[in-house]
Structure formats: C-alpha cells, structure tokens
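S.,

Sequence below, as promised.
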Amino acid sequence: MLQACNMDDQHCLAISQVSMEKIEVLSFTENNSISCKGWSILANMLETNYLLKYLETQSRSDTFSAPSQICRRKMDYYLKLNRAGRGELLVTDGSRIGWTQFLIRGRDDLDLLYYTLL
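The prediction came back faster than expected:
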C-alpha cells in the first residue's frame, strides 16, 4: 500500500518501470501530488501489467487531482481483464482450452469479448 506517501508523477513513472510480480492490489489513496500525467502513466502501465487487479485512487482532499474519466476508464478496463484472467492466458502457454474458457467466462461482458477477439 502506498497510501498518503506524498507520491507524485515521478514516483508513478518509477513504479511503472518496476516489475511488480505477485502484486494484485495497489493503493494510491491520499497522494494529492499525483497529476493527470501521473495517472496516465499508471494507466499505460496496466497495458502490460497482467497481474494487478485493483488500483485505488481516492482522496478526501480538496487539492486532489483525480484521474480523468478517459484515464479511469482505461484503468478499469485493464483491471477488469486482469481480474478475468488475462495474466494467466498471456503469461502461461495460452492454450486453446484456456482461451475458450476465458471466452465462456466473459460471454456476457463486451469488454472481455472485444479484447479476446482483437
């Protein structure tokens, strides 16, 4: 947890470049110095991070710069894919059975279907 650690955009950049194996939950709550640039760096990191499943970004401060709607949607999209098992498919052998099971689990979720069919 990185709650209330005075994190800023430079910290987000450093974290995005570190291999975060086995980390499934990351909390940036109450880090009021992170700007839209920092949130965007973290959102872009999620494109290649297959294990992180939850990323907390809330703050009660009036000076808090929340992720933009586009950035938050991107974060939520990749986090949802990770919770559905994207990492297991891409890190392991990605067998036909694995992809089929992924599709079956996500049959009612257009985001999962779209990602799989791309």
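The longest helix spans residues 69-84.

Coffee later?
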